[in-house]
Amino acid sequence: MRADKFLWSVRLFKTRKDATEACKDNKISIRNNAIKPGYQIKMDDVFLVKKGSLKNTFMVVGIPLSRVGAKLVSEYIQDITPMEDQEKNRLIITAKREDVYDGSGRPTKRDRRTLDKWNDGLHGLPPSRKKKK
Questions:
Q1: Are the CB atoms for 67 and 8 separated by under 8 Å?
Q2: Which of 38, 59, 117, 121 would suit a FRET pair with 94, their CA atoms being 20 to 30 Å apart?
Q3: Structural domains in the chain (count)
Q4: pLDDT band, very low/low/confident/very high, at 114 (cuts 50, 70, 90)
Q5: 52: domain CATH number?
Q6: Lowest model confidence (mean pLDDT) among 54-68, 84-98, 112-126
Q7: 92-100: which pairs have CB atoms within 8 A and are 24 or more residues apart?
Q8: Which domain does 27 fall in, by range?
């Protein structure tokens, strides 16, 4: 099976185009050699997948006929990423999650109510919220 089709069918990439581009960008390698999208994947191949700063190593256990469900992925590939790389990946993912929301941006409805209460206590009601008599 072609490498791009295999990577897509075992759900390592969302689309086959993404898998093809990853191969073309030298982000997929087998035995330290970058592979092309048309490379024929065989049983017991060990390949490295680089997604951003994450690096994972997988071994081919089976060849699917078509795209498989998420629960069946373990029947076709086995994650053999070394423990050091797994720990680095966990740290990178954790750091990315912490950077997602830093308290800036549009406030939620709850945040706005809290701000309004705070503003009402210090400055009275804002001009747009003054009660009409």
A1: yes
A2: 59
A3: 1
A4: confident
A5: 3.10.290.10
A6: 112-126
A7: 92/53, 92/54, 93/54
A8: 3-85
